[in-house]
Amino acid sequence: MTDAAFRELRLDGVGRRFGDTDALVGLDLTIRQGEFIALLGPSGCGKSTALNCLAGLLPLTAGSIWQDDRRIDVLPPERRGFGMVFQNYALFPHLTVRRNIEFGLQMRRLPKADVVRRTAAAVALVHLEEHAGKLPGQLSGGQQQRVAIARAVVLEPSLVLMDEPLSNLDAKLRLEMRTEIRRLHQSLGLTTVYVTHDQEEALSMADRLVVLRAGRVQQIGTAEELHARPRTWHVADFMGFRNLFPASVVEVSAERVVVDAGGLRFAGVPAEPVTVGDWVAVGVRPEDLLVVPDGGAAADGASSAGSAGSAGVLTATVSVVEYQGREFAVEVRTTAGLRLHVRTPARLVPGDGVTLRVEADRLLVFPGGDHLPPATAPLGENTGDGGGAGSGPDVVDVRGRGSALVPQETP
Amino acid sequence: MSPAASPGTRPGASPGTGPAPVDPGLRHRLAERGVDARLLLLVPGLVFVLGLFVYPFLYGLGLSFQPARGGGPFADYQRFFSDTFQRDTIGKTLWLAVPAALFNVLASVPVAYRMRGRFRGKRLLTTVLVVPITLGTVLTAEGLLNFLGPAGWLNRALLGLGLVDEPVGLIQNYWGVFFSLVISGFPFAFLLILSYLSGIDPTLERAAATLGAGWWQRFRRVTLPLLVPGLATTFCLTFVLAFSVFPSAYLVGDPTGETRVISIAAYEAAYQANDYPFGSTIAMIMGAVELAVIGVVLLWRSRFYVGTTGGKGA
Question: Which residue from A230, A361, B163, B249 could staple onto B253, CB 3.0 to 4.6 Å apart?
């Protein structure tokens, strides 16, 4: 439908309040034609609100939406011409698959022949020819999902909105449908906005991701950008930085900072500029914590045995081991009580001592802001998980206090 | 019935396997068919239905075939249908009950449609709409007399304003009974339809909106078809209530003329002429007419989709 096509769709300070709570604040986003955008965030972060605002199902309480030079946030949903796939599919239960897909075409009062032809094409597109005469209730979840997609794309909408469309499917089907949606997006030249809480889904499908938290944009960027350079520790949390802990900055050089976490020193890369004395969040992916064979460790970090090793090297005790196919996901605990997650092919057992090393390039340092990730030390008192031998009774709170709130101190 | 038959046949069928395992096996098999101790919970209800409905009904049915004046089992039926004064009560009652039930259902739909979401004051509004249900026919009738009667507020206002020259006759005729049926039937229909409507998943209409349907199309093409079974059921229930109208036909109607409904005919036969069999005959005819109307409605309903509507109430 060329009349509905646009070059870009601009969200300008879009906000939505429910009573006294801000569900979405100041969302600025420009969607280019043909892009696949994922809105990513935990539940309640405002991503579905953003989608509903875009669809016209929720009126905005702030900002505006522009389709090229046309303001569209004042239009009702039926006049925006966007296709939407709902989380529960929202198929009309009293209409057959074919009639569900026809619905939008009929609303546009297209000639009968056109309706029949385009419906047949859409049915074929999602491989549901054999089921076209069935009611939605007679279909499996995956088939219903495909009907919902066909119904949304048959109108060749200028924008397709998808609200966690795969969350009701089982893991295998989810993977298949993921590829299917991406394939349709490319072959039909759609512009798609896709809401999900699954970072893997978002990373694998989207050209650009918008990470939301508590109604505010945390970061907008390509999958590679977000994966390699998350700007806040909340984004990092979503991008697989499973090891997140608070620390304080002790040294800042050109491209490196050295931080101190309960006596452990790490060198890392700042995600944003920091100054000495700042409380920061440190993030490392489990796969970037390398297990050094015990023999080699002596040579590597010879000068400092014990937990306070040279920057980037630490010793710890294995507490939990999970088998994950090719690798093991291992939880270790340092003598200072810091819990870390490691991935390693080595077969470890709880109680083993290990030496870990992390490259400074792989350790990201995030400015603290209002919140820091909780220090893991208080949990260290729980010795029932097998590795009790390693952790002493004098478990140290990494940051010397229990609260996750850190006062803004700028020396 | 079939579960009840199996205990008789099982013990006989399996003596070869030894008597010991039969007992737990039998109990298990019965439980799988829903026969267990919990079935006893049905007893009070069953006694109630048998004693207060089935027995009187069958008794009345029997009575209707034993005319007091003799002349064969169908004499009273022939008598009813050959006497215009009696026969016309069917038409008069239908003429009251069908429009009243239709009005109640159709008027409830927009009100319930508007009220299905959540909004401030919903509870208060619902209460106001439902209060008439608690009033009872006599109180309603008295209200109607006071309000719509020749010396009622409405007529006094109309006369005072010079809009009419003589009081408008709104009671002691068809309209009085009709109003009474609406006042008592509307809350009932409204409550039922509200619950049917909230059983329809609201995302369906939102989906229709994103597909380009305006509000009328959304209602017409999505909500209404899903609501039809509920409308049919509601119509049947309000129709039955209206068809058995009796007190208001006397109090605010014209019980010897245009609102001589069938229940009045039955009452007169049984308690004024003391002809119990004829009264029973009329009651049976009344039941048959009701069943016929309900049958037609359900037949019509069966042409529509009946199934899950996706919402919480479904």
Answer: B249
Strands (E), A188-306: 192-196, 208-213, 216-222, 243-252, 257-261, 264-270, 279-284, 290-292
Q: For A117-155, how does the pLDDT look when each residue is reduced to its tens digit (9 = 90+)?
A: 999 999 998 889 999 999 999 999 889 999 999 999 999
CA–CA gap between residue A272 and residue A369 (Å, rounded): 11
Phi/psi-derived region of residue A156, left when phi > 0, alpha when psi is between -120 and 50, beta in every other case: left
Query: How many Å lie between the alpha carbon of A213 and the closest alpha carbon of chain B?
Result: 25
Which residue from A minimizes the CA distance to B220?
A107
Give the chain B residue whose CA is nearest to the CA of A58.
B206
Distance linking the first and last C-alpha atoms of chain A = 59
- Token digits of residue B154: 């409405």
Phi then psi for B27, rounded to 5 degrees?
Answer: -60, -40
- Rounded to whole angstroms, the Cα distance separating A61 from A18 reads 9
Structure tokens at A72: 């569209």
> A147 vs chain B: nearest CA distance in angstroms?
13
Nearest to A107 among B204, B217, B310 (CB): B217
Residues of A in contact with B310 (CB under 8 A): 88, 90, 93
List phi, psi (to 5°) of A23. Answer: -85, -25
A129, containing H or E segment: none
Segment A35-51, tens digit of pLDDT:
999 999 988 899 999 99
CB contact under 8 A, B308 and A55: no
DSSP per-residue codes, A33-53: TT-EEEEE-STTSSHHHHHHH
Spatial CB neighbours of A335, under 8 Å, sequence gap ≥ 6: A306, A307, A315, A316, A317, A390, A391, A392
C-alpha A121/C-alpha A41 separation (Å) is 35
State mean pLDDT over B131-156. Answer: 87
CA distance B205 to chain A (A): 9
Phi, psi of B239 (to 5 degrees): -65, -45
A94 with B226: Cβ contact below 8 A:
yes
Of B206, B304, B305, nearest to A57 by CB-CB distance is B206
Q: What span, in angstroms and rounded, lies between the C-alpha atoms of A222 and A214?
A: 21
Q: What is the pLDDT of residues B250-290, one digit of tens each?
A: 999 999 999 999 999 999 999 999 999 999 999 999 999 99
Instruction: Tell me the CATH number for domain B75-301.
Output: 1.10.3720.10
Residues of B in contact with A91 (CB under 8 A): 207
Is residue A165 less than 8 Å (CB to CB) from chain B? Answer: no
Q: Contact B210/A135, CB-based, under 8 Å?
A: no
pTM of the predicted model, to two decimals?
A: 0.77
By percentage, how much of chain A surpasses pLDDT 90?
47
The CA distance from A154 to A126, in Å, is 11
Whether A108 contacts chain B with CB within 8 A:
yes
Partner B contacted by A115 (CB < 8 A): no
Of B185, B186, B188, B184, the residue nearest B137 (C-alpha) = B184
Query: What is the spatial order of strands in the sheet that A36-40 belongs to?
Result: A82-85, A159-163, A192-196, A36-40, A208-213, A216-222
Distance from CA of B108 to the nearest CA of A (A): 23
Q: Do B211 and A55 touch (CB under 8 A)?
A: no
Contacts of A137 in chain B (CB under 8 A): 307-308
- Greatest alpha-carbon pair distance for chain A in Å reads 83
Taking alpha carbons only, the member of A364, A374, A381 closest to residue A398 is: A374
ipTM surpasses 0.90: no
List all residues of chain B from 221 to 240 with a beta carbon under 8 Å from chain A: 221-222, 225-226
Instruction: State how beta strands A313-324 and A327-334 pair.
Output: antiparallel
